[in-house]
Amino acid sequence: MAVEILRYCPIKKFNSSQEIVFVLHGLNVTQTNKHIYFSFTLILYIFTIFVNLILIVTIFLEKMLHDPMYLFLCNLCINGIYGASAFYPKILYDLLFDSHVITYPGCMTQILVIYSYAFCEFTSLTVMAYDRYVAICKPLQYHSIMTTRKVWTLLLLTWIFSWLESGFGMGITAKLPLCGLDIDKLYCSNWAVVKLSCADTTLNNLYGFIATFSHISQMILILISYVNIIKASLRSRAERKKFMQTCLPHLITLTNFTISLTFDVMYARYGSNTSLLALRNIMAVEFLVVPPLVNPIIYGMKLTRIRNRVGQMFKRKVAALT
């Protein structure tokens, strides 16, 4: 694919040293509907935080859930809260105060957090696939391979890799002079800001291709892991049961996030601005809204230990209140 270079804009140039305020054009609701959208969005945000915290607290309080698989799941829930909190507070503020602007530092911060969330999610799912591969294909060596030190190292590297990758992308975008301040989205995204640039964006395109290639490589590693996992699962009924309980939720989570993120990336680069606003908004926020909400519910329903532990916690709370 040829590298796309944005044309120079025949309007005033801005740079990051000036007081730049972006205008977000993704929100278009009437005064009547505004309070309905605010209430619905607030409930969705609170519920997302709640279901993720339930799993995090359950895993930390229950010593039997300190296995690598559950620690990786806990990390996935923490990242879900992290990603959701990059989007919900700003959109709630915009709905409540009828504000459609964001400062330059605020925009860059939102880009950093949203992209590091996306990168961390994909890398976490790759690490979880590796963990399931070792657990099912090499069960006798599992505890010698997935040591506590290795688990925490993998978790640390996941976050460091994600922050470095997103930080570099934000850094090269921040150096671009701008010819416009209008962003046709509900939030700031890297490509939306790059499209406003008055300069050659070859480096930004190259960064995008390299980042895409690295995460496609992760997807290939996940697929290779699951080919071996499925082969191993066919050997016995016990292995098939283990696959259904621990690997199926991971596959659902992976598919859900990949489709959501692909929609946003493809639509941001190649979608038409003349299409329905509601469709554009759904495409743009799906990977920020659906995975953080759905992931803990899927794992909570499929993993017996977590489901039983959560049930016991609620029964004790109800008994204490009666």
From TrEMBL:
Gene3D superfamilies: Rhodopsin 7-helix transmembrane proteins
UniProt-recorded Gene Ontology molecular function terms: G protein-coupled receptor activity; odorant binding; olfactory receptor activity
DNA damage is among the record's keywords: no
GO CC field: plasma membrane
Membrane topology: Multi-pass membrane protein
Transmembrane parts of this sequence: 36-61, 68-88, 108-130, 151-172, 206-230, 251-270, 282-299
Keyword set includes Membrane: yes
Keywords carried by this UniProt record: Cell membrane, Disulfide bond, G-protein coupled receptor, Glycoprotein, Membrane, Olfaction, Receptor, Sensory transduction, Transducer, Transmembrane, Transmembrane helix
Segments forming a coiled coil: none
Subcellular location: Cell membrane
Main subcellular location of this protein, as a coarse class: membrane
Domain spans labelled G-protein coupled receptors family 1 profile: 51-299
Family per similarity comment: Belongs to the G-protein coupled receptor 1 family.
PANTHER family, per database record: G_PROTEIN_RECEP_F1_2 DOMAIN-CONTAINING PROTEIN (PTHR26451), ODORANT RECEPTOR-RELATED (PTHR26451:SF860)
Name of the protein in question: Olfactory receptor
